[in-house]
Design a protein that fits this description.
about 0% helix; four-stranded antiparallel sheet; mainly beta
Length: about 120
């Protein structure tokens, strides 16, 4: 069992930066691929960024490529999402997820956090 708790969300102006954190419980964190997803009001959940268990592979949605960076610290059981040059369209609830393999498909991820709100004003 893995429990995930996100933090770091907030209200910022366009162009600002935020760093989201996702703290995981359980000693098997380092074996999981991790992902960040987001869901805006009235929209479906969408993939944002993913990271393999070894950090050897990272991948991003086109909408955030070049602005967001996913990373992990297996010693701290934490995965991060550094978000720069934020835009109003980035406003959403952001979720981290843990799964057995790296994928953009949310259905593959077994464990999910409760989400953290990110609001970007124009």
């Amino acid at each position: 069992q893995v429990q995930l708790v996100e933090s770091g969300g907030g209200l910022v102006q366009a162009g600002a930066s935020l760093r989201l954190s996702c703290a995981a419980s359980g000693r098997t964190f380092s074996s999981f691929a991790m992902g960040w997803f987001r869901q805006a009001p009235g929209k479906e959940r969408e993939f944002v960024a993913g990271l393999s268990w070894s950090s050897s592979s990272t991948y991003y949605a086109d909408s955030v490529k070049g602005r967001f960076t996913i990373s992990r610290d297996n010693a701290e059981n934490t995965v991060y999402l550094q978000m720069n040059s934020l835009k109003p369209e980035d406003t959403a609830v952001y979720y981290c997820a843990a799964g057995s393999r790296s994928t953009t498909q949310g259905s593959v991820y077994r464990y999910w956090g409760q989400g953290t709100q990110v609001t970007v004003s124009s």
